[in-house]
Amino acid sequence: MHTGKPAIRFSCVQGCSDCCIYRDYYPTKEFGKIGVLLLPEEKARMENLARQKGISVRILPRLAIGDKPEKIIAYQMMGIEDGDWCPFLDTEKESPHGGHSCSIYEERPLACAAYPVIDAGKVATLDPHCQFCKKHSQTARLDGLQGELEALSKIQSKVRSENKRVWRYATATGQDAVFPEGWVLDA
Ligand code: SF4
Ligand code: SF4
């Protein structure tokens, strides 16, 4: 990506764990906070990892397609503490950049491996919430984000659907959620 400025290679901000802690309301506050996106084939693996570690995880549906919400195409692993902290975040251990450590780093979901890339178009879009991207998003080098781009492409190829009726699961998590927990027709 040519920006006219010296490129800076992506690396996590020292001490930051924001993407494992803060959860958005998506697409709007009415739906409640979202969890970490899981593809259907990742759900059982996350449940097994939680069992092995003796922690409990709450995994809800996220998106479904069909005239009714017949086929679930994505799940979400909910956070703890009002929906924020990922249950796999180990607050006792430090990550290599001084943040909290992911206790399943080598087996983390694809969505975590893709972050902070949120759109892998011709030019990759980086999440403006990411602490590194707030400072450097225009100068992040794509060759420092190949793993993230590959993970996001895998997610997009699985979740993309020609089906016009997409259902979103309202999580009813967080203070501003309005919809009760359950399916809402998205469009
Ligand atoms: S928010 Fe960005 S800088 Fe902070 S831990 Fe996540 S990816 Fe790294
Ligand atoms: S699974 Fe690991 S990388 Fe993903 S949000 Fe949880 S702690 Fe962070």
Write up this protein.
There is one protein chain. This protein is α+β, with helices and mostly antiparallel strands and 187 residues long. The chain has one domain (18-185). The chain is built from five helices and nine strands. The strands form three sheets. The chain has a five-stranded antiparallel sheet. A two-stranded antiparallel sheet has the order 4-5. A two-stranded antiparallel sheet has the order 6-7. The protein is globular and about 45 Å long. The mean pLDDT is 85. It binds iron/sulfur cluster (SF4) (2 copies). One iron/sulfur cluster is lined by residues 20, 36, 86, 88-89, 102, 104, 108-109, 112.
User: How many extended strands?
Assistant: 9
Count of alpha/pi helices: 5
CA distance, first residue to last residue:
34 Å
SSE succession: HEHEEEEHEEHHEE
Would you tell me the structural class of the helices and strands?
Answer: alpha+beta
Query: How much β-strand is present in the residues?
Result: 15-25%
The biggest sheet, with number of strands, parallel, antiparallel or mixed sense and barrel status, is: 5 strands, antiparallel
